[in-house]
Amino acid sequence: MDFIIFIIAMGALVYGADFIIKESERIALHFNISHFVIGATLVAFGTSLPEMAASMMASYAHKSDMAVANVVGSVVFNITLVLGIVFMIAKKMAPDRNLFAKDSAWVVVPVIVFFIMIQDGSIGRVDGLLFLLLMASYLFFLFTDAKDDLADEVDASLSSKFNWLKTVALLTIGFVLTIGGANFVIESGTNIARTFGVSEWIIGLFLISLGTSLPELVVSLVAIKKGNADMSVGNIIGSNVANFSMVLGASSLVHPLIVNVVDTKFDMLIMAGASLTLLFILANKLYNKAGSIFLLVILALFIQNSMQ
Description:
single chain; mainly alpha; A middle domain of Talin 1; two-stranded antiparallel sheet; globular
């Protein structure tokens, strides 16, 4: 029964996030906010809402391992699985934006800050506030740097006549599905872990993080279909910044997070390795099958070692 609840709850998370993303975009378009800002903030942060809800619920239940593992796993899956598929499938990627020059710092800085914070074995409320400050810095960067018109990133259907009542109703449904789904994901995930004798860290690292990464995967596949596969890179960078700053920041404010650095060091190193590989890809513009192979090899190592 827990497996069924887990799958249904994951579906609620994904559909809830989808409602929130679309209606947030509709509001932004109504107020003539830059398309670049919409794609880089609302879409990227919106697809991180499942991770945020799941980790906050885990933190509230004093399940630090699950909360932190969800973020670590989501960052790894976002980079290796999502971008690995994007680079493998996309026929041609030639971003107009110089991703390495403008966005490379946001690939590594959150990871560095994370590693510094966990050296004492915890992410406290002060750390959480610093993470939220990092998110504010990223938002400031995006708003001041947004010069490109990325209209193609946004679904044309969103430009239809604006209706406040409908938008508020769908946003409410989205938040209910996301938060409620997260609660059931945590409870059912914990029960599954106990049934099979699997640690909560592994459940958070795989079942929850993979499930909550589905919005990023769906958005990226839609972008490929529309010929905007290169925009998937920006979405993943923004999502990963949100995972660290927004997800861990908010979760640690709910309750300080305990991190077992010794037992989880391999997964942490894989996350750092995936981020550095993405940095290498951006520097050399390897938006192709070669870049895809690099990322998928890291994913295979991640899965193979964690399942032992």
